[in-house]
Design a protein that fits this description.
Keywords: Membrane, Transmembrane, Transmembrane helix. InterPro entries: MFS_trans_sf (IPR036259). The protein is mainly alpha-helical. Helices cover 84% and strands 0% of the residues. The protein is flat. The termini are far apart.
Length: 100
């Protein structure tokens, strides 16, 4: 057995598995994303067939959903910047980079 094989066996023995919580959360995230990708395209069909909504209502629902998502991203980003001071850190790092 040469030195390369010994190193490989030593590295294999030292590897640790992921914690059980990480594995469970990975599966939960995967199935949540999968379910969302399946359900979201069905919403316009539900609105048009079951609720007899016209194209204007479908457009309004989609517009409100997109606007709400954009405002929540804006609000959560601003809140994160204020709580953790990330904006000042990023601004300082960018200014240091460009100053060189």
């Amino acid at each position: 057995m040469d030195k390369l094989e010994q190193n490989h066996e030593a590295n294999s023995a030292e590897r640790k598995t992921l914690p059980r919580t990480v594995i469970i959360l990975s599966f939960v995230s995967f199935f949540n994303d999968f379910a969302s990708d399946i359900v979201v395209p069905l919403i316009p069909i539900l609105l048009a067939t079951v609720l007899a909504a016209g194209p204007v209502v479908l457009g309004l629902v989609e517009g409100v959903a997109d606007a709400l998502a954009s405002f929540l991203k804006l609000w959560s980003g601003r809140r994160s910047d204020l709580m953790y001071g990330r904006r000042t850190d990023c601004s300082r790092l960018y200014s240091e980079t460009f100053a060189r």
